[in-house]
Fold these 2 entries.
Entry 1:
Amino acid sequence: MPSFNPVRFLDLPIDIRKEVYFHLDGDFCGAHPCPIDVLYSSNTVELPGTPGYKRSKRSKKLLKYMYPVFASHLSIFEYSPPLIEEWLEYAFWLRYDCLVLDCLKVNHLYDGSLIGALEWTYLDNELRLAYFNKASMLEVWYTFKEYKKWVIESAACYEFDSNYVSNIKFDIENLTPQTVYKCLSVLEKKDLLSTLRELQFGQDEEVREEDDDDEAGSDQYAKSKSTVIRKKRASPRSSHPDADRVKGKQKQLTNMSVTSTIKMMELMKSLRKITVRGEKLYELLINFHGFRDNPGKTISYIVKRRINEIQLSRMEQISRTGLADFTRWDNLQAVILSRIAYVDLNNIVFPKNFKSLTMKRVDKIKWWNIEESILKELKLDKKIFRKLYIREDKSRFTKFLNLCQTKIKELDKSEIDQIKYFRCQALVWHSFGTLNHIKLQNISEVRNNNIIVPRALFDSKRVEIFQCEKISEVLVI
């Protein structure tokens, strides 16, 4: 069997190399933990036992001298000592590997869309650019000078400038407040804040349940809320003299990592994306509920105008306190909702330039109330409407969904007045607004098991549905 020739591989066209690196998915070596998705889908979790072998002198030296340097990034994998030992073996040379450097070069040319963004972090008492795989394990790291020389300058012919680095993020969730402060100070001192394209905020504490924390839009929500209101009216105000003060404290932003990062955001002139994990931070930073209680600790108008993408994850719902209002983000074009329990699209308001909505791993979605508006326009009940005016769509565009259990249906033009048909189309576009791309992935439940989408988006394949078994019907108008 012929051996792999890296020189011949690097001579291949960039498109071929890109496909190879895409399938690597950011795993550059054999030392990586079990994927998180496998742990969630498996009924049992097999933990490695104590090593049944005697460590070599080399392994002992690695653990003694190298492990303390990377302890802050490797401590979460201490459940598997062999994994750490194997990783330390790779740590010596992997960052110099020609294929790894070429992968980073191609990733830079494709603006970080190949394997993801690199992160600023603090390692060995120095600011570093690091790449973490999807299991949050450190793969490679470089000083800014090394990254400039080995990746940027070899990937482009123009003279290097920090403004060309557009695939770097700063994840404060995985850093201590002291480390965040150090990183920001060094970035400001070296004039590197403009290299940041994405900021990632996160919270460790659970969101406190309040009176209106039940699922909005459901009957149980209305009943539970009315019960809470009756209890509050029945109890004397004197029994909770500090209720208002405690409620105000819950709105206070006390996380030092978040506040110190917010103060520096105006200097991050290349910042285009904000990722937020947790409902409390979302309400304060994105939806601006309670911002008056945090003067000087909220995102300024200048920064909001720079942002064109927001990603939200790990929360119950984004419209718990009323509307999820994104209109303050003037140039926002894309929103990604990931791992959210409940999404009511009727309670979300997007800005005028909004283009793309992605929802993945959402437990339940309530679609726009388009059908109710159409029934009101046609003055029909739901049963007659579905029997007379809807037929199955046999167009060639039904195949791209790749969902055998989903029926594609359309409003029958021959059974409806043309003016009313155009009015129905207008009602659909009134809900969608300027949205021209929507993606649904791994959705557990959709209310009524059907959705309504515009024909223009569906025919141009700008409605993407993947692994949504509960969506039994797509009505195209």
Entry 2:
Amino acid sequence: GRHGGHGTARPPRRRAGVFLGPFAAAVGLVVLSGFGVYAFASSRGDCSGGGAMTVSVAAAPDVEPAVAKAAGRFNDARHEIGGRCARLRVRAADPAAVATLLSGKGSAGVTERPDVWIPDSSLWVRLVQGSGRPAQAVPFTGLGGIASSPIVVAMPKALAAQLRAAGVPERPSWRDLLVAAGTADGSGAAPDAGNGGAIPAHLLRLQVPDPDRSATGMGTLMLAGTLMGGSPGGEAVFTGVVRTIREGIAASVNAEFTAFRGGSEQPYPVALAPERAVFAYNAAHAADPAVAVYPSEGSVFLDYPVTVLGKDPAKVRAGRLFEKALTSKASRADVRRLGLRTPDGAAPASFTARTGVDPRVPHALAAPSASAVAQTMQAWAQLSLSIRMLSIMDISGSMAEPVAPGVSRLQSTIRTAQGGLSLLPDDSELGQWEFSTDLPGGQDWRELVGVGPLGERLGSSTRRQRVLSAFAQMRVKKHGDTGLYDTVLAAFAYMTRTYKPEFVNSILLWTDGRDEDPDGPTLDETLAELGRAYDPQRPVQINMLGYGPDVDVRDLRRVAHATRGEVYVAETPQQIQGIFLKAVSRRVCEPSC
């Protein structure tokens, strides 16, 4: 129907999914660089008279050849609508570029709004609908899909054989594949050995096309939201998935496969790609083929929807007639020749083990709403920003308390911090302080490593190595108290003074107690100073990780909330990694946390 839902034909056996819910506010659609590649439908006939109605069609490049052939047959049939002959003009257009135009965010290489739009996925339509602009400006009439292609895990055939020989099932789970690609699961638990858990951690190097430019990349985020958003620690897991995707972004789907020809060293390259891309790659690289792996939970399908834009009833009628032509027997044959399935999931006859793809119909995960797409893409936009963080470790006397045989509270916390450090890419900026009371220099805090890029070389080592070395040398200050408020104000002043707008700027303070410095500022004085210094246009967020039974959550929370931060408390060492990821994922809700 008009102005709202976008109905598409989808493969059967659809499973319900739960999309990430905590990410509110409207999406800021990035102005994308797109390319409109023009191709006109050939027609062996012509409309008589001068009253022909031209209907422009923008189709995703991978389905455009089939659309152009169908348009040629349509034009030959000389359909009359309201006494006028309808003629279709087809052009290949990047769906991201069309979405940018329709959202009112720019042109990105496409300047003409089509009458009929056939992107590779309904996700683009829902993204535009969720942008808050098109409902008034551009009415949408959603028709059926004309093809389908599931997102699969593509890997070199030799790697797939190696995994099967090691006991990995034919259809491992998405979670286990992501853990094997370096994504923390947020629970501290080992992968399920009966459902793909045989894949060694960090064995795989994930390649994903940019979610801002590719429906496959966007679909990967939706898939992560579906499978993990409703589970305990879902935000933390999503944060880990985004980090993994961000580190493995490829310029395009085709670019993903270049890594398959770059050697055989671990971690092995795998690509999230549409099934038809695996089929096309193997057609051109028979000597070094890829294999499509279909995870057990199912997948998101590219569905190639036909969408009519605008109110003109004649063009809406033409769009409906063309949608019927696109699902004819001849058009379905054209679609299958491109390595695409038909809307019901039926595969081309050429889909065999030899061509690396499975003709069986995978389970299809439920399609998200327009608001879910907007919220998830907003989460991606926030989480894919680089981090600039000052980490501050409590070394007061109580941190010597044992939490396990032979392990002190400080040692356990440092292990957590070391694990968290491994989750941050090299372009993240990090610094490390420690605090107690009356440290050398007469202050309650001491800088160990200045804030800067983790990958930056500092003499013979990198900043990441310097931070790890600082952790190794960190010791409890015997009889030291907790100069917390003094340290918080000093850290906040430093991070505000050195604020960088291209980063998410934050402070992460690790403590096991409360402020115990009688010579330092009071809670009220601390809150008053933070209230004066906090600038919502240059936000620096204070997050605190409390560990143990003596944490004064109420007072710490008042301090954190003054900067729109939060306090997280861990009772056991096993909870720390998930809490660390949750603290990092706080930036999703900025600046409205």
